[in-house]
Amino acid sequence: AIRTGTAESVKLTNYRKDGTPFENAVSIQPVHDSTGVYRYCIGVLADIAQLTSVAEKMAEFQTLRAKLPSEFDVNLQPTPSPPYGAVDPFAQWKEFYPA
């Protein structure tokens, strides 16, 4: 979802140190600028263990997810960073440790 800029929601079962399970819902929502370019993603981790039914859990989670922004004005955005792996690590090293 992060690489492709698509929305995704999943339910996770995690385990405490004592081995007892608990549930979380995780949602990743893409955020585009006003020209439609995928810029960011917002991730939400919600504790759904206290909710009683699956329908109640998902309704609460979808309400939270609907409040996330999906677009920002492109004029307010910083210049995007280059894709991962495009930075020369030796050039970065020289910035911090000049000869």
TrEMBL record:
InterPro entries: PAC, PAS, PAS-assoc_C, PAS-like_dom_sf. Residues 8-60 form the PAC domain. One of its GO terms (cellular component) is nucleus. SMART domains: PAC. It comes from the Eukaryota. Keywords: Chromophore, Flavoprotein, FMN. This is PAC domain-containing protein. The lineage of its organism: Eukaryota, Haptista, Haptophyta, Prymnesiophyceae, Prymnesiales.
